[in-house]
Structure formats: structure tokens, C-alpha cells
Design goal:
- The structure is a single chain.
- The protein has 2 domains: about 5-255, Alpha-Beta Barrel (TIM Barrel); about 270-365, no CATH class.
- The protein has helices at about 25-35, 50-60, 75-85, 100-105, 110-125, 145, 160-170, 190-200, 220-230, 240-255, 275-285, 310-320, 325-340, 350-355; strands at about 5-10, 40-45, 70-75, 90-95, 130-135, 150-155, 180-185, 205, 270, 300, 320-325, 365.
- By secondary structure, it is of the alpha/beta class.
- The protein contains 14 helices and 12 strands.
- Helix 1 runs antiparallel to helix 10 (about 240-255), helix 11 packs across helix 12 and helix 12 (about 310-320) packs across helix 13.
């Protein structure tokens, strides 16, 4: 598989999340951050929305970023004029291709699509713009029709990985231009579908920071880049620590905190409680961590809880230069599990600290400092 080209749509599709908007300053900050990460294309906004959107797109176009600034357009000349007024050189034109949207949204037929494409694309090219085309609602469209339109958008997130692979393989075999795959996450399949689309020949993968986008969102940039990097060895120099910071900033300005279990960056993904897991980690971290936490700016943390085992408790005490007997460890775990069986919101860490204070079998081990 060729190295994928990343197209980030946080500033366009991400901002279409209900209740989310970015100030001009925030858009510029996020664009700079994406550019520093090496994202090749930034889909930055919709000029047809009016003067403020055109103003920020002009500002982005003048930053001199390495990334292309892409403006999103409907299939109409007025939108192209708005893009020209925004000083961008690259435009994306969305073309509804499903029978559902053509008939029930636009009241048009396929002949109209191609006439309009000739008019709009011809106008854009004559004005010196680079044009990409998007087949909106492609996953509910006739495949032969989609092949004639280019960019594949699974607008409602209806694909499964197998269907995505087969569809993209069929399309890329008949195109002489790069195919861009734009997935939505309505059924939690955006990442898997994007990976399969890439395997099937899609060269451009549309993503957004934290998967932000309409409804259930899009393919998460950090998850796609992470899978490509850690599983397939692509993006060898990708700075995931910097990406973590950018995602944290986005979470803050959008008032949407990252879930604790968020892949790569969640606060809990390097926390370990299970006795079996902690015992394995003590012996070799690769037993239960595919990559070190530091690779993504994380930190390993061993915590006390219902599923802790004697080995993990003894290890935690050992880090303080102390020792804990097997019998004391088992005594604490028995008390903890009894309490948790009938009570909510038990603070296991606090109880463990109290237990250690009152346990005679915890004593100096004779070593100095922290013991690994």
C-alpha cells in the first residue's frame, strides 16, 4: 500500500458538529498545527456561507502553509465564485449521486448531474482552480455512476469493511486520478472502512481530529495515523505527542472532553488494574502494551481495584522501597472485594493507603529509593 495522503476536515466537517464553531483565530491555530504535523490537505471551510468564511479562508491561504487549503463547494457556479473570492487555489465540489438524494433532495436526474459538472468544473478550471470531486452518499449509489464522479463519500456511514474494500477496488481500477475516501462513523466503522479503502487503493483518506463531524463524526485522524504508523510502519516520523496536544486543544475549545478510553490518547488506556495484566507488565511491558505510552505522550499507571492481584500490590509497595507479604496482600483484596460487592463509589486507592499505614507486615526492605 502506498503511503496515504491525509486530508483533514476538522475545520469544515468537524465544525458542522451541532453546537461547534471555531473563531478565526482558532481556525488559524488548528490549521498551523495540522500543517506542522505534515497533513497534506486541510479542508478549511465553505466559502458559500458568506463574507466571514471567505475572510478566514483568505487568511489561511496567505499563511504560506505547506498543506493545501481546500474549500468545500456545492455543484453550482455561485459557490465557485465564492471560492475565487476566498483566494484559495483548490476546491472540492460535492456531487450528490444516490437516487435518494438526486430525487428527494434536488429533484434532479443523472443527466442533470453531468451537465452541471461540465458547467461548474469547466468554470473552475478556466479560472485556474484545482478541482476535486466528491460523490455524496456514494455508498447508496450505483457503482458505475460513482466511478464517473471520483471522491467516494460514505455520507451516512453505511459501509462495512468488506463492502468498502470491494467498492474502492472496483473504482480505483477504472480511474486515472487519486481517489479520496471520506467515511462517517454512524455505526462505529469509519476507521475500519478507511483502512480497507486505503488497502483497496484509495490514496487520500479524509479524517478529522478526534473524529469530529456531523452525527457520529468521521474517521479520527489520530486513529488512522496511529493504525498506519504502529501496525503498518507508515508515517515513521509522525509526531504523536504534538498530535495529542492538538487534540487536547480541540477538546478544550469545543467543550468536548476526550473520553477516558479514547484510542491512543485517552487518560485510561495506559492504566492497568487487572492482576493478570499487571503481572505480565512487570515481567515485560510488551506483554500488554503494543507500543510504549511515551510514543503518544502517555504514561503508564498501575492502579488498585477489585481485579488487582497480589503481585501488583506487592510491586506498588516495592516501588516505595517497602515490602508487602502475600498474606497481607490477600487480606486487603478480600476486604476490598467484600466492600465493593455491596457499596458503590469505593475509593480503592485511598483504602489501600489506609491499609498500608495500619499493616505491620509492611516494612523497610533494606533498599534505598524506589525499587523497580
Amino acid at each position: 500500500m502506498k503511503r496515504p495522503i491525509l486530508l483533514d476536515t476538522t475545520l469544515r466537517d468537524g465544525e458542522q458538529s451541532p453546537g461547534i464553531y471555531f473563531t478565526h483565530e482558532q481556525k488559524i491555530m488548528l490549521a498551523r498545527g495540522l500543517d506542522e504535523l505534515g497533513v497534506e490537505v486541510i479542508e478549511a471551510g465553505i466559502p458559500g456561507m458568506g463574507k466571514e468564511e471567505k475572510k478566514v479562508l483568505r487568511a489561511l491561504a496567505r499563511l504560506g502553509l505547506k498543506a493545501e487549503i481546500l474549500a468545500w463547494n456545492r455543484l453550482c457556479d455561485d459557490d465557485i465564485r465564492s471560492s475565487l473570492e476566498s483566494s484559495v487555489s483548490c476546491v472540492h465540489v460535492s456531487v450528490p449521486t444516490s437516487f435518494q438524494q438526486l430525487t428527494r433532495k434536488l429533484n434532479k436526474d443523472t443527466d442533470w448531474v453531468f451537465r452541471q459538472m461540465d458547467s461548474v468544473i469547466g468554470f473552475a478550471v478556466r479560472e485556474g482552480l484545482t478541482v476535486s470531486l466528491g460523490a455524496e452518499d456514494a455508498s447508496r449509489s450505483d457503482l458505475g455512476f460513482v466511478i464517473r464522479v471520483f471522491r467516494y463519500a460514505d455520507t451516512l456511514g453505511l459501509l462495512t469493511p468488506g463492502k468498502a474494500l470491494r467498492a474502492i477496488e472496483a473504482i480505483t481500477g477504472k480511474l486515472r486520478v487519486p481517489l479520496d475516501f471520506h467515511a462517517h462513523n454512524d455505526f462505529g466503522l469509519a476507521l475500519a472502512n478507511s483502512l480497507m479503502a486505503w488497502e483497496g487503493g484509495a490514496q487520500v483518506i479524509s479524517c478529522s481530529l478526534l473524529g469530529m463531524g456531523e452525527r457520529a463524526g468521521n474517521t479520527a485522524l489520530e486513529e488512522f495515523a496511529g493504525a498506519a504508523h504502529f501496525l503498518w510502519g507508515h508515517f515513521p516520523d509522525f509526531d504523536f505527542v504534538r498530535l495529542r496536544g492538538l487534540c487536547s486543544t480541540l477538546a478544550e475549545i469545543s467543550s468536548r472532553p476526550m473520553p477516558a478510553h479514547k484510542p491512543l490518547f485517552g487518560s485510561d488506556i495506559f492504566k492497568h488494574e487487572s492482576g493478570i495484566h499487571v503481572d505480565g507488565l512487570i515481567k515485560d511491558s510488551e506483554n500488554y502494551e503494543f507500543f510504549p505510552p511515551e510514543a503518544t505522550g502517555g504514561k503508564r499507571e498501575l492502579v488498585v481495584g477489585k481485579h488487582s492481584g497480589s503481585a501488583s500490590l506487592k510491586h506498588l509497595v516495592g516501588l516505595r522501597g517497602k515490602e508487602l507479604s502475600d498474606s497481607s496482600a490477600q487480606e486487603f483484596l478480600m476486604r476490598l472485594r467484600e466492600r465493593m460487592a455491596g457499596e458503590r463509589d469505593v475509593n480503592a486507592e485511598k483504602l489501600f493507603e489506609s491499609f498500608l499505614v495500619g499493616t505491620a507486615s509492611v516494612c523497610d526492605s533494606g533498599s534505598e529509593g524506589v525499587r523497580a
